[in-house]
Every structure is written in C-alpha cells, then in structure tokens.
C-alpha cells in the first residue's frame, strides 16, 4: 500500500516547528514539571529527598534516571514529582505552568492526564484535587491567550492499574465531565495488571456515554492491546506501539521505507486499523522504557504508511527532556517527513480528541489547517 501524500523532505527547522500548530493527547501532568518548580515545591512542603537542588543537575537526573530501558524503573522517577504535588496551591501551579509551556511550544489543544488518587497524602479529597488542577488549567489558558498563543486544555483522570479505585475514578470523570474532564484512563506497570481487572470502571464509562483510553501495548505487548479493545472497549490506545507484533512485513522491509506493500496484518492489527482506533505514540518515551530499541527501529513510520491513525505525543516532558516540537523534529529527521505529514498526524490527533465533534472541527478548520497552510507556503 503506497501512501501517496506522505513526503520526504530535508529536516525541518526548529524555529519553524515552534510555529506549527500541535495537538497532544498523551501527556502526564506529574511528568512535565519544570525542574525549578520541583525544587520550589519541595522546599514549600519540606520534602528533602530530591537527588539535587540545582536546576540543571535535577533536570539531567530525571532524564538519565528515566533512560533505563525498563518501564518499572522509569516509573520510579515519579516518586519525586508526586511527592511535591500534594496541596491545592502546588497542583494549581503545576497545572498552570503545564499549559504555559505547551502553549509556548505551539500546542493548540492538549489532553493532560493525572491520577487524582496519588495526590491525597496531605488530606485533599479526590474532588479537591480535580478542582485544583482544572483551576490551574484555566489560569494557564488565560495567560496563554494574553500572550497571543491561545490553547484549549482538557483533563483525563487516571486510575492506577495496580490499585482498586478505578470505578471511583471513573465516577469522578463523569462527575466533572461538564467542567473540563473529558475522559478516563488507567496507567502504571502493565505486567501482572491487565486492563480487564478494571471492567467495572469501563462498563461505568460506557453506561454514561463517556470516553476512555487505556495504557496498553507499551511494556506487555499484543495481549494487553487485545484486552483493551476487545474486552474493555477502549476508544484510544495509550502507546499501542506493540501492535507492530501483529504485522508481518515484506522480506527485507526497513522501518524507514516509503512503502510497505505486501504487509500482512493479523486480526488485532486489522481491527485497530479498520476501527480507526487512535494510537497515542510517544517516540522518545517508548525508547526510554524499552518498548523499542531506538528511534530508528520505532514502528511509527510503518504504522503511519500503513494508514493506522498515528498521533505524536510527549508522554512525560520532564523525564524525556522533550517537547512536541522536539518529538516532531526527531520523527521528521529519522523518517524524512515534511509539513504535509506533520499536518496529517496533527489532524489525526484532533480527530481523536475527546472533545465534542463541532469543537474538534473548529480547531481543525480554523487553527490547524490555516497554520500549516502558512508553513506549506
């Protein structure tokens, strides 16, 4: 299958990439703090376990510690960020700065996820956590609009897959659905914690016509994808990178090829593509956690050229020392993408957002397409 409108161009300039309208669907609030904010908040709450109180050293520590090749080890870095996000003021500041940083990077729509159950150590209730984060998002949106970089930000509330609060968190998602929470997610180590353990939560979301994504196909492979879509009914797949395990490529095929004519899709891969189930791919993070060996072998290009609904995401900007512009540039450099390709990935993401259809269409027609029209000349 040849994808005629995917192009090959010279690497795109960083300054131009900053201007490109972007959409991020998979970005963790507790994985995107500014190092200085971690230091400030640690001092505020008396948290003395930071690896460093020097801004540059702390930033490097997070990136190096996360670069372990293991999802479980990668997740251990969050102990420090979660520890300092236990008050209303801290949550509101982190949420506001998250929006400011995304807007400065040219993001026009974002869905930011976090696990309310992780922020209760100092006595907050689940509702107080959600309300603090939503207030911070509103602060950030107002600041971004004032600076001439408008952005729309919505929340996904996440349940930890090793815990037993998923139904409670699903109810939280529905309770705040008119106030900025657009969906539900489960996250955490995949091995030993299949998504089917949380069927009650997913049934509740479906019964209330609410949307959800599931972290699947990152560390545990194809079986987790099968469970997420077949048993749980996921609207999107968080990562989903291991869907490649259900695709047989033509002999001699390379990840950076321009076409994969003759590729044979298994039942799971066919279902994901036929149903247009979005893949929330996070290239840098996928390398860090060992989901793929390196960017050159990442299946992003294979999936894109086989017309899966691929989207580009950051996952954790602090741990991966990345931005949406950086992720796009890395992909463009590795696989030879041009503006037309990046526009398609961005429209893919906006089509897949948990925002109402008319609002999605407005952002696509009034923001994304005109923005890329300028870049395309």
TrEMBL record:
<keyword id="KW-0546">Nucleotide metabolism</keyword>
<feature type="binding site">
    <location>
        <position position="315"/>
    </location>
    <ligand>
        <name>Zn(2+)</name>
    </ligand>
</feature>
<keyword id="KW-0862">Zinc</keyword>
<feature type="binding site">
    <location>
        <position position="188"/>
    </location>
    <ligand>
        <name>substrate</name>
    </ligand>
</feature>
<keyword id="KW-0378">Hydrolase</keyword>
<feature type="domain" description="Adenosine deaminase">
    <location>
        <begin position="21"/>
        <end position="369"/>
    </location>
</feature>
<dbReference type="GO" id="GO:0006154">
    <property type="term" value="P:adenosine catabolic process"/>
</dbReference>
<feature type="binding site">
    <location>
        <position position="26"/>
    </location>
    <ligand>
        <name>Zn(2+)</name>
    </ligand>
</feature>
<keyword id="KW-0479">Metal-binding</keyword>
<feature type="binding site">
    <location>
        <position position="215"/>
    </location>
    <ligand>
        <name>Zn(2+)</name>
    </ligand>
</feature>
<feature type="active site" description="Proton donor">
    <location>
        <position position="218"/>
    </location>
</feature>
<dbReference type="InterPro" id="IPR001365">
    <property type="entry name" value="A_deaminase_dom"/>
</dbReference>
<dbReference type="InterPro" id="IPR028893">
    <property type="entry name" value="A_deaminase"/>
</dbReference>
<dbReference type="InterPro" id="IPR032466">
    <property type="entry name" value="Metal_Hydrolase"/>
</dbReference>
<protein>
    <recommendedName>
        <fullName>Adenosine deaminase</fullName>
        <ecNumber>3.5.4.4</ecNumber>
    </recommendedName>
</protein>
<feature type="site" description="Important for catalytic activity">
    <location>
        <position position="239"/>
    </location>
</feature>
<dbReference type="GO" id="GO:0009117">
    <property type="term" value="P:nucleotide metabolic process"/>
</dbReference>
<feature type="binding site">
    <location>
        <position position="30"/>
    </location>
    <ligand>
        <name>substrate</name>
    </ligand>
</feature>
<comment type="function">
    <text>Catalyzes the hydrolytic deamination of adenosine and 2-deoxyadenosine.</text>
</comment>
<feature type="binding site">
    <location>
        <position position="28"/>
    </location>
    <ligand>
        <name>Zn(2+)</name>
    </ligand>
</feature>
<dbReference type="GO" id="GO:0043103">
    <property type="term" value="P:hypoxanthine salvage"/>
</dbReference>
<dbReference type="Pfam" id="PF00962">
    <property type="entry name" value="A_deaminase"/>
</dbReference>
<dbReference type="GO" id="GO:0004000">
    <property type="term" value="F:adenosine deaminase activity"/>
</dbReference>
<dbReference type="InterPro" id="IPR006330">
    <property type="entry name" value="Ado/ade_deaminase"/>
</dbReference>
<comment type="similarity">
    <text>Belongs to the metallo-dependent hydrolases superfamily. Adenosine and AMP deaminases family. Adenosine deaminase subfamily.</text>
</comment>
<dbReference type="GO" id="GO:0005829">
    <property type="term" value="C:cytosol"/>
</dbReference>
<dbReference type="GO" id="GO:0008270">
    <property type="term" value="F:zinc ion binding"/>
</dbReference>
<dbReference type="GO" id="GO:0046103">
    <property type="term" value="P:inosine biosynthetic process"/>
</dbReference>
<dbReference type="GO" id="GO:0009168">
    <property type="term" value="P:purine ribonucleoside monophosphate biosynthetic process"/>
</dbReference>
<feature type="binding site">
    <location>
        <position position="28"/>
    </location>
    <ligand>
        <name>substrate</name>
    </ligand>
</feature>
């Amino acid at each position: 299958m040849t994808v005629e409108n995917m192009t090959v161009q010279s690497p795109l300039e960083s300054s131009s990439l900053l201007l490109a309208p972007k959409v991020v669907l998979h970005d963790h609030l507790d994985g995107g703090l500014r190092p200085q904010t971690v230091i400030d908040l640690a001092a505020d709450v008396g948290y003395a376990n930071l690896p460093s109180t020097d801004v540059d050293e702390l930033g490097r520590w997070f990136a190096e510690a996360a670069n372990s090749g293991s999802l479980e080890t990668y997740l251990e870095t969050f102990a420090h960020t979660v520890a300092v996000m236990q008050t209303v003021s801290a949550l509101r500041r982190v949420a506001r700065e998250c929006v400011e940083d995304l807007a400065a990077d040219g993001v026009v729509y974002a869905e930011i996820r976090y696990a309310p159950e992780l922020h209760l150590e100092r006595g907050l209730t689940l509702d107080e956590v959600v309300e603090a984060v939503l207030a911070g998002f509103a602060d950030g949106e107002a600041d971004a609009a004032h600076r001439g970089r408008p952005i729309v930000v919505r929340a996904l509330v996440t349940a930890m897959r090793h815990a037993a609060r998923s139904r409670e968190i699903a109810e939280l998602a529905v309770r705040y659905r008119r106030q900025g929470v657009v969906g539900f997610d489960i996250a955490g180590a995949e091995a030993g914690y299949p998504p089917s353990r949380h069927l009650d939560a997913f049934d509740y979301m479906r019964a209330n016509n609410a949307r959800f994504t599931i972290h699947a196909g990152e560390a545990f492979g194809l079986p987790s994808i099968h469970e997420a879509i077949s048993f749980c009914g996921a609207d999107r797949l968080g990562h989903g990178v291991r869907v490649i395990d259900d695709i047989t490529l033509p002999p001699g095929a390379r990840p950076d090829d321009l076409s994969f004519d003759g590729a044979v899709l298994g039942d799971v891969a066919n279902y994901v593509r036929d149903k247009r189930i979005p893949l929330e791919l996070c290239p840098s993070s996928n390398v860090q956690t060992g989901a793929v060996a390196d960017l050159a072998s990442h299946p992003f290009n294979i999936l894109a050229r086989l017309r899966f609904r691929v989207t580009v995401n950051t996952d954790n900007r602090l741990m991966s020392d990345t931005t949406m512009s950086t992720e796009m540039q890395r992909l463009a450099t590795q696989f030879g993408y041009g503006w037309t390709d990046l526009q398609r990935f961005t429209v893919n993401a906006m089509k897949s957002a948990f925002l109402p259809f008319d609002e999605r269409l407005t952002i696509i027609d009034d923001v994304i397409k005109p923005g890329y029209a300028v870049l395309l000349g």
